[in-house]
Amino acid sequence: MRRTGILLTCVLFGLGSITHVIIAQNPPDVMIWEDTITIPTYRINPPDPSPMFFRNQSYQGASRVIYPYPAIDNLSLEKGMQDYKALFIENDYIKLCVLPEIGGRLFYATDKTNGYEMFYRQHVIKPALIGMTGAWISGGIEFCVFHHHRASTHIPVDYRLTDNGDGSKTIWIGEFEPRHRMRWTIGITLHPGKSYLEVSGTLMNTTENINSFLYWANVATHANEQYQIIFPPS
């Protein structure tokens, strides 16, 4: 931890001089790194290698267009331990974990002052058939772009870890999405000495066409018998 010393000298007439050192503490550093975590996982069988050009199904009020993605809907009940690439960012108040191999999902966010999980934290990867292409899991925050539960919600996305020069650091996730031929990036930032996380995003239409899109963050929370949803919120 860095400390900056400021030297002040007080002169007391007739008693000589007394030197006082006052320590001004800088905000703690933000740490960012890449590692591996092991999570109990229900295996997904390999997808059908044949292209899914057309599937006469609707998906959340729209046509379920999968191509050029494969349909990852051949789930199994076979459970085992699996290693995942994990991206971590942490300051004195919060520790975050992002899984780039599962769509860049914010897997957990822990309040370090009391150990509380800010969002629902999964302890097993057990896909259900909810995603556009099939497999989908709950928990943490799923960043959804272009069309409902993102087509790549359960497959690897690109990522980058950056130092922003002001003490803050950012985990960037994103991809070129081939269904819409558009690009998206999401940045998750922690600042030194701050007890909040900052999420920023960019959606880029790289085509010559006018395209519609959706963006929303699908946030999971803990629920019990006393949990209530109040709608409309205001």
Task: Describe it.
The chain has no helices and 17 strands. With 234 residues, it is an all-beta fold. The protein has one domain. The protein has a 5-stranded antiparallel beta sheet, with no helix packed on it. A hairpin with a 2-residue loop joins strand 4 and strand 5.
Entry keywords:
234 residues; mainly beta; four-stranded antiparallel sheet
The tally of beta strands, per DSSP, is 17
Order of helices and strands: EEEEEEEEEEEEEEEEE
**Looking across the biggest beta sheet, what order are the strands in?**
3-6-7-8-9
Shape label: globular
Could you outline the blueprint of secondary structure elements for this entry?
Layout: E1 3-12, E2 16-25, E3 31-44, E4 58-59, E5 62-63, E6 75-90, E7 94-99, E8 105-111, E9 116-117, E10 128-131, E11 134-136, E12 141-145, E13 158-163, E14 169-177, E15 182-190, E16 197-205, E17 215-219
Antiparallel strand pairs: 1-2, 3-6, 4-5, 6-7, 7-8, 8-9, 10-11, 12-17, 13-14, 14-15, 15-16
